[in-house]
């Protein structure tokens, strides 16, 4: 259970850039973040019309103009929206300042600058070059990196790094030569400039687009403005009629919580097979009605996602499959239709393991570091990497996995999976055309050994998931149609539309959805009543609880011996609201409801006729309302595997249960008594960081760093007090914070366990300008302010006044102009401002007035520099305007929280404050 490393993040958190040495910043004028005063918009005739824009279902705004359509924002699979709606495919796409979605929720980690498939569609189908409007040369540089990795693959490939010594060199692929083969199109070598032309704003901040072909004679002018938090203005002049129209579109790309083709949420509990596959998508990137191919491979009832499509986590959630059931993600290659959901999965709750070869992993990191603007070292810290070696067997949960390189335009791996005496094979993207393979060998592109390996595809497995598509980079359908009937019975075709399969071919498309999971019958491992009888499963559950994540192996062994399992039938009460709490309970199977409302609002708990092994039957009754019900603002929580409750048992004083817990379905719990936990873990029951343990007070006089201490001493070393367990008032504070309130219950519990409350007097200093960063603060009571800044001094235009800031601070849902009050640090001479925009080079960061004061619920302090190896220093002095209570998150604790919740961290890591 020990973490493999406690190394702090090694990232550059300078004020001007987040670019690492692996991605040097190109000096360039960034018209998105120009601080010069903005000129007024050109006046239009009073009779000017408004261009009617279309909000696309997957996100992005389609703007039809007399000079041709353009699109602002490019979420994954966005071309499918245009195709399905019968809209002309745009040639011009406007890159938003924020290149991926940072807000916690369904859209977290979704790339809104996915230009890959629009470029393919325009080039291969329309025979034209896509034109990307970008805000800086630095953005162009980063997008060229993306295009290199996704179109041509890595520039430099180590021929030995991915292979076991047991693999003969003659049988190894020449990945560079194979990629070069696929670069030929119509007798010419494809280049980056063949597919994409970058368009920049001029010195006046304008892009002029002249209509071509059918649109000849029309002209549009595109402007980017900082008004209303950032917006694009499209002015149109129709040369034929002289008509003038205008559209104003927010720079923020709204993403739907649920897409139309997503399954409806269900209360049915999905029981993963011991061995099998759930198909999340079975089509390709150009099918407007299909979902892009992706899978969940189930091994011993635990999941490994393979090329998860966008929103794959939402699809699983709607089928009641918790993130804790997914142990890792297998990345086969770095085309957008196969890796778009991987980055999103990485950012969801808990750390995920990324499984692929070192070559593909390097490409993945370069691609998403360039897209997001995050330094590669920081991006690597958000997950674990498990390297694949071709020729060596990888063992996962009792299964054996063998990987192989397929024949594709960029490096791509397929895999064979063996569990018990059954097996599955995934082809991944693969050009399985025997005639072409033979010709490539004759042309010297493939060695004889590589040719023979490709022709000997393993058709013998119990289940075969093989792709088909448009040559030359995919398998022609005839290859599969010519297979023996016995093979076809075990074959599931993917990456294809049903209409492309000949009706008499004997082929079938892989069935879509959790309800159609392909289960391979194997002998399931025995389950025993005592926890030690299923040690691996128990360790998974213990490790999924953040406060136990640093248990040593010795401590984990003790917990295995002392823990037990309990079962409760559906409808029974597991925990009474207001009752004594003696155990920490982790859900192993089933679903339960935390009934805050039943306790706080007098809601009737449903009756049941059954009584459980440990749960009493529930009669209809009214739960008493707590006098402090106002302290609770959260809705009821649904618990499933990996979720836990009973945190009150870890408090020093006897604390009654804050809520009832009711079994929705039959529930199995892993139960750890608080007495045993204290005996095993001692004072480190909450969290075991380092070797120093915890005390209830800080060591030494804290006034040198927190309080009224002398100037210039800097912050002293902190010895953190015992982690406070969940408090109702902290729940209320978190509910007021525009980012923290979107955390999951498990994330909230962990975050609350890291907080240390301190009372301060009026005039006390929280931290001083120039002192090292040691903690961030969540303001619980009172008012804080930056005492070395003058409120209202800003380098922004006057449109962003106090009223706009107040509106933003409310963090209302985005309506095209509103924005979450998440402000980034910036400076310009002696003035200071707070900005919100893209990570990295930060183009078009929204600048707002420095607030006069901070109020309860505000998180203050940049967590990125705080936990970086280089550390950081405070840029301003934070002082108490009134007596205050602050909740501190110390450096080591924030590091622990961040690496286990990368999505939350990446939402706030370079923000100066979050209101």
Automatic annotation (TrEMBL):
InterPro entries according to UniProt: cNMP-bd_dom, cNMP-bd_dom_sf, Metallo-B-lactamas, RibonucZ/Hydroxyglut_hydro, RmlC-like_jellyroll
Biased composition regions of type Polar residues, renumbered to the chain: 22-33
This protein's UniProt keywords: Cytoplasm, Hydrolase, Magnesium, Metal-binding, Nucleotide-binding, Repeat
One MF annotation (Gene Ontology) recorded for this entry: metal ion binding
Protein name: Cyclic nucleotide-binding domain-containing protein
UniProt-annotated stretches for the region Disordered: 1-43
Origin species: Tribonema minus
Keyword Nucleotide-binding: yes
Source domain of life: Eukaryota
Sequence ranges assigned to domain Cyclic nucleotide-binding in this UniProt record: 547-682
Cofactor(s) the record lists: Mg(2+)
A GO term from the CC aspect: cytosol
Record carries keyword Oxidoreductase: no
Compartment annotation: Cytoplasm
Family as reported in the entry's similarity comment: Belongs to the metallo-beta-lactamase superfamily. cNMP phosphodiesterase family.
């Amino acid at each position: 259970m020990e973490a493999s490393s406690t190394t702090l993040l090694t990232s550059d958190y300078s004020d001007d850039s987040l670019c690492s040495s692996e991605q040097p910043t190109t000096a360039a004028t960034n018209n998105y973040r120009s601080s010069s005063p903005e000129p007024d918009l050109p006046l239009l005739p009073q009779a000017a019309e408004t261009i009617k824009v279309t909000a696309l279902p997957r996100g992005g705004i389609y703007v039809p103009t007399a000079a041709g359509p353009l699109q602002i924002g490019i979420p994954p699979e966005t071309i499918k929206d245009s195709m399905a709606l019968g809209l002309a495919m745009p040639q011009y796409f406007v890159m938003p300042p924020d290149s991926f979605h940072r807000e916690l929720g369904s859209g977290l980690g979704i790339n809104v600058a996915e230009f890959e498939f629009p470029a393919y569609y325009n080039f291969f189908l329309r025979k034209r070059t896509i034109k990307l409007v970008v805000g800086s040369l630095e953005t162009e540089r980063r997008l060229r990196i993306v295009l290199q990795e996704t179109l041509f693959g890595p520039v430099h490939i180590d021929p030995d790094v991915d292979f076991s010594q047991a693999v003969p060199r003659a049988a190894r692929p020449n990945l560079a030569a194979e990629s070069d083969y696929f670069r030929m199109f119509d007798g010419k070598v494809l280049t980056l400039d063949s597919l994409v032309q970058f368009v920049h704003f001029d010195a006046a901040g304008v892009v002029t687009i002249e209509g071509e072909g059918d649109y000849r004679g029309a002209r549009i002018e595109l402007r980017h403005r900082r008004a209303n938090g950032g917006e694009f203005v499209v002015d149109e002049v129709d040369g034929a009629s002289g008509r003038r129209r205008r559209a104003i579109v927010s720079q923020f790309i709204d993403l739907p919580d649920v897409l139309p083709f997503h399954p409806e949420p269900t209360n049915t509990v999905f029981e993963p097979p011991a061995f099998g596959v759930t198909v999340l998508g079975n089509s390709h990137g150009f099918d407007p009605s299909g979902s892009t191919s992706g899978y969940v491979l189930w091994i011993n009832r635990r999941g490994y996602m393979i090329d998860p499509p966008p929103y794959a986590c939402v699809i699983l959630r709607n089928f009641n499959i918790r993130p804790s059931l997914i142990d890792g993600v297998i990345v086969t290659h770095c085309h957008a239709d196969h890796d778009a959901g991987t980055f999103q999965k990485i950012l969801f709750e808990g750390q995920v393991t990324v499984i692929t070869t070192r070559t593909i992993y390097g490409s993945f990191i370069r691609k998403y570091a360039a897209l997001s603007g995050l330094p590669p070292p920081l991006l690597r810290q958000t997950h674990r990497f498990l390297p694949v070696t071709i020729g060596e067997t990888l063992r996962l949960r009792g299964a054996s996995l063998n990987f192989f390189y397929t024949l594709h335009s960029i490096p791509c791996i397929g895999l064979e999976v063996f569990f018990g005496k059954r097996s599955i094979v995934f082809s991944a993207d693969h050009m399985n055309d025997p005639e072409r393979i033979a010709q490539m060998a004759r042309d010297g592109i493939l060695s004889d050994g590589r040719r023979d390996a490709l022709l000997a595809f393993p058709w013998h497995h119990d289940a075969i998931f093989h792709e088909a598509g448009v040559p030359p980079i995919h398998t022609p359908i005839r290859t599969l149609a010519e297979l023996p009937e016995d093979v076809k019975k075990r074959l599931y075709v993917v990456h294809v539309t049903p209409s492309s399969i000949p009706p008499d071919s004997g082929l079938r498309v892989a069935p879509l959805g959790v309800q159609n999971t392909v289960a391979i019958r194997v002998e399931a491992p025995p389950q025993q009543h005592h926890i030690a009888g299923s040690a691996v499963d128990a360790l998974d559950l213990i490790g999924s609880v953040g406060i136990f994540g640093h248990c040593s192996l010795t401590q984990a062994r003790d917990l295995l011996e002392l823990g037990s399992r309990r079962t409760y039938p559906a409808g029974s009460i597991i925990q009474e609201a207001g009752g004594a709490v003696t155990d920490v309970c982790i859900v192993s199977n089933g679903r339960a409801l935390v009934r805050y409302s039943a306790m706080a609002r007098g809601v009737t708990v449903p009756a049941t006729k059954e009584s459980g092994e440990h749960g009493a039957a529930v009669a209809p009754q009214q739960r008493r309302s707590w006098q402090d019900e106002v302290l609770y603002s959260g809705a009821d929580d649904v618990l499933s595997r990996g979720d836990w409750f009973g945190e009150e048992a870890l408090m020093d004083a006897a604390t009654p249960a804050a809520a009832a817990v009711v079994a929705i379905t039959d529930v199995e719990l892993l139960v750890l008594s608080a007495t045993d936990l204290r005996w095993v873990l001692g004072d480190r029951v909450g969290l075991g960081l380092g070797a120093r343990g915890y005390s209830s007070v800080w060591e030494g006089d804290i006034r040198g760093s927190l309080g009224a201490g002398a100037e210039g001493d800097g912050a002293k070393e902190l010895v953190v007090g015992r982690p406070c367990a969940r408090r109702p008032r902290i729940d209320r504070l978190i509910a007021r914070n525009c980012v923290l309130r979107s955390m999951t219950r498990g994330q909230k519990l962990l975050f609350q366990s890291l907080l240390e409350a301190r009372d301060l007097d009026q005039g006390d200093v929280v931290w001083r300008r120039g002192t090292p960063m040691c903690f961030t603060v969540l303001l619980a009571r009172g008012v804080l302010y930056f005492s070395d800044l003058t409120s209202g001094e800003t380098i922004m235009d006057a449109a962003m006044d106090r009223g706009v800031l107040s509106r933003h601070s409310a963090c209302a849902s985005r309506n095209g102009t509103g924005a979450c009050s998440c402000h980034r640090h910036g400076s310009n001479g002696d003035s200071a401002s707070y900005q919100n925009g893209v990570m990295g080079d930060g183009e078009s960061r929204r600048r707002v007035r420095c607030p006069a004061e901070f109020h309860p619920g505000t998180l203050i302090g940049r967590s990125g520099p705080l936990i970086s190896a280089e550390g950081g220093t405070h840029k301003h002095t934070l002082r108490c305007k009134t007596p205050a209570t602050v909740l501190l998150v110390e450096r080591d604790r924030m590091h622990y929280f961040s690496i286990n919740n990368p999505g939350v961290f990446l939402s706030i890591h370079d923000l100066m404050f979050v209101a």
